[in-house]
Amino acid sequence: MNEQIQTVSTSAGGFIWSALIIIGLLAGAWVVGNFIEGRVKKIERIDPTLRHFISAVAKYSLYVLAIIMALTKLGVPTASLIAVVGAAGLAIGLSLQGTLSNIAAGVMLLFLRPFNVGDFISAGSVSGTVKNLGLFATEIATADNLYQFVPNNQIWSSGICNFSRNTQRRNDLVMSISYDDDINKAMKTLEKMLEKEERIIRTEGKEPQFFVNALAASSVDVVARYWTKGSDFFATKTDLTKAVKEASDKAGLTIPYPTTTVEYAQPATPSAAKKAPAKKKAA
Description:
Distance between the termini: 147 Å
Mean pLDDT: 81
Number of helices: 7
Largest sheet: 5 strands, antiparallel
Helix content: 40-55%
CATH topology of the largest domain: Helix Hairpins
Structural class: alpha+beta
CATH class of the largest domain: Mainly Alpha
Strand order of the largest sheet: 4-3-2-1-5
Low-confidence stretches: none
Order of helices and strands: HHHHEEEEHEEHEEEH
Strand content: 15-25%
CATH architecture of the largest domain: Orthogonal Bundle
């Protein structure tokens, strides 16, 4: 009886000890994984986009290693464990094709680098500033500061337009004038207006240009084409749009409204003439 009690006590003690080790492994992996993630994110020498990706890979890899060690401690054979993991991986891969495609898309976005954290991009129906590129999704803040959690595959499968990549941008400022106005006067007005704007680039090959772009249905469209820094693009565009209206008013130019000409046809009056009598056919 004493031997049975001692055997049970030994087994219980071994189980409790194994359970404590397993709990310690999992808890340690959780703590160390979060610590590594936090430390990697603070390394300023690494690009912010790569920083988030590496920290996530390191953390989840540590979690997987801790789970494998815990299963080994429970007595699961390594060969059987590999077979189970392989079978489970195949089943999970088939059922989570979309999730795996997001991971693959995240890897492609990371290495090809069509954008970085902090860039303003447009991809399909999504546009905004990139806040984080993760394993599964990309976090974006829209222009009105709405949070968007976009799967990586959705971004990868769309055409990506990066508004922040190039340091300089071009804009066409249109002034629509009446057909009765002087075109040369309108172009001179635009030229004087742009001379006052210091944010416009005037290097060789990127000097401001002025030309007639279209003879529209109710207006002549005169264009001022100029270059600015990418960071000055929107501010310069809004300021010059306001200045166009003020300059055209000062110069006496007319910004025409679309007009439609409608003609009314008068109904014809009934004829007072009598119908001629029908001719009789000869017998």
